[in-house]
Amino acid sequence: MMIFKTDKALSLDVSRRFLPFMMAFIIFISSIILAVSGIASHMLNALGNRLTNDAIVQVLPNMNARDPRAELETTMDRVRKVLAADTGVKSFKIPTDKEEAELLRPWLGNMGATSLGIPLPRIIILNPAKNVDYDRLSIALKNISPMINIERSADFSTELKGRITSLKLVLDLMMLIIAAAAAFAIIHAVQASIVANRGAIEILRSIGAANYYIASRLSNRILLSSIAGAAIGFALSIATLYYLRSSLAGTSGALDIPTVSLEAAFVLPVVAAVFAKFISFFATMFYLRGKPS
Amino acid sequence: MSQERKEPRPLVEFDDVSFRYFEHQEILKDVNFKLHRGEFVFLTGPSGAGKTSFLNLMHLNLMPTSGTVKLFGRNIERLTPKDSAAARRKIGAVFQDFRLLPHLTVLENIALPLRISGKSDRYIATHVPELVEWVGLKNRMQSLPDTLSGGEKQRVAIARAVIGNPDLIIADEPTGSVDDEMAGKLLYLFKELNKMGTAVIIATHSKLLPAQFGYPVYSLGGGIMTKVGA
Ligand SMILES: Nc1ncnc2c1ncn2[C@@H]1O[C@H](COP(=O)(O)OP(=O)(O)OP(=O)(O)O)[C@@H](O)[C@H]1O
Ligand SMILES: [Mg+2]
Questions:
Q1: Which ligand is located closest to the Cα atom of residue B49?
Q2: Where are any strands of DSSP class E within chain B?
Q3: Could you say which of 3.90.230.10, 1.10.10.60, 1.10.10.10, 3.40.50.300 is the CATH number of the domain covering B7-90+167-173+199-230?
Q4: Which helix (H) or strand (E) holds B161?
């Protein structure tokens, strides 16, 4: 393969000592960033799909009342009437005690809330119409009791989406910074190699080597170093991503975290090696340009 | 316009060329010189006369202070770096200081011009060892230049100059470090290439060497070039 054809003419390769390790490190870090960024994207998509207009009405018991349980029931009756009368509410559902206990289990455990002897807050799941006006409904419900709240899932999703988006932004920025750092390191390696091989370059030119020839040989050397680094980077990242995947597997609940993709571990070493070859080729051409031959 | 029969284009043409190093006295004064395909000439003159400088102009390492130098029909001051590289690939040069790559073996040093012009490994594997044997370095093929004697280095330099079958050979004191017998053998290489059309210019302070051949001899002294024999 032509691309691997390096001759030994430019063998004073000063980058050989640090480039592989730098490459490995960069591939390792970026594969983790990419995996996390992938999870973030997945969650954003999921939230986007779920971004509906539904809401939950929470009716909290008034513990200061003489009979909180009885008062809660009265309040519930009045809430039912208000909801039934509101044209913005297509239908609503009041979970049974059992269903509610199920919903609250993550917080209260199996012992169930009723055993505490206090009435549970009641929740009502709304199925809103398009023209729903939550502000108006909220006022109407607050008139019944200040202990009634409307929790809109859209508010929660929007906030979460905002956070995840900024996290993703930071991750993408990190990728950019890492790519720039890698480019600088490669350019530095090229400069150092040109200095170290100055004598050889002069001789090569005096027997007719064009800058293109020198640049392709030098960048092949850098490519070889990078491939060594890519191999180490691959090993590190596949191991780490695999570990992340298994430790995050089975996470469930409100934030459904997807399987960690191992793709980055395969793609990044290849991308990094090609990137190194191109950057070093053009950097060499740049440094040798216009030099009196 | 000219009534004369048009002479073929020279490979090398110096037109009123003067040259001096920065702040130095003139080394070449209004030199006129032509070298055609198939010619073989010697350039003599005492040490410091400017022979190496003259050859360096021809090899694009120096530019004239005034006048024009044309190589393969083109003014050397108008060549792009790419053109210069291409022109040099048509020249086989033997430098007075050899200029071998210290970390390449004898074999690889000689193969270098072939690698630069993109010849295949197979071509290299068949052609280079043959020539290495001819210059008497069969047993030193895998040696590094630093382990060679002056004469051996010189032979490597000559082999590297002729391996690519160049249009022009520029040799600066190519037999200064070898005995007479080896000198004859090396010059034979040049003669053989010359028979096939390669133009050859050899700089030497030896008066004996040109005398053995009967080729034209140019002499440099005091910045003036004169044709002394032929
Ligand atoms: N790079 C340089 N800078 C300044 N002066 C130089 C340089 N190279 C050579 N000279 C001077 O130019 C003159 C001609 O040198 P040149 O090497 O061309 O002579 P030469 O005929 O090849 O000598 P020799 O037979 O000893 O090789 C000498 O006086 C030398 O000192
Ligand atoms: Mg000289």
A1: 1
A2: 12-19, 28-35, 40-44, 66-71, 74-75, 91-94, 168-172, 199-203, 217-221, 224-229
A3: 3.40.50.300
A4: helix B150-162
Structure tokens at A289: 């340009």
The contacts of residue B5 (CB under 8 Å, 6+ apart) are none
Q: Could you report the predicted ipTM of this complex, rounded to two decimals?
A: 0.90
- For the entire predicted model, the pTM comes to 0.76
Residue B3 has pLDDT above 80, yes or no: no
Is residue B199 within 8 A of residue B36, CB to CB? The reply is: yes
Cβ within 8 Å of residue A207, ≥6 positions away: B88, B89, B93, B112, B113, B116, B160
Please tell me the distance from the alpha carbon of residue B32 to that of residue B16, in angstroms, as a whole number: 5
Q: Do B103 and A203 touch (CB under 8 A)?
A: no
Domain assignments of chain A as residue spans, ordered by start: 2-50+165-288, 61-146
Per-residue pLDDT of B176-195, as tens digits, reads: 888 888 888 888 889 988 99
Digit-coded pLDDT (tens) for A31-69: 999 888 888 888 887 776 655 667 888 888 888 888 888
A105-125: pLDDT as tens digits: 655 655 555 555 667 788 888
H/E stretch holding B204 reads none
CB–CB contact A203 B117 (8 Å): no
Letter for the amino acid at B185? K
Ramachandran area for residue B222 (φ above 0: left; ψ -120 to 50: alpha; else beta): left
**For the CA of B51, the nearest ligand:** 1
User: Residues, chain A, total?
Assistant: 293
Q: Where do the domains of chain B lie?
A: 7-90+167-173+199-230, 94-165
Determine the residue of B17, B23, B53 to mutate for testing ligand 1's pocket, defined as the one with the most ligand atoms within 8 A of the Cβ atom. Answer: B53
Q: B81-89 and A198-206 helices cross at what angle (nearest 10)?
A: 70
- Residue B8: CB atoms within 10 A of its CB come to 8
* CB proximity list for B49: less than 8 A, separation 6 or greater: B220, B221, B222
Q: How many CB atoms lie within 10 A of CB A49?
A: 8
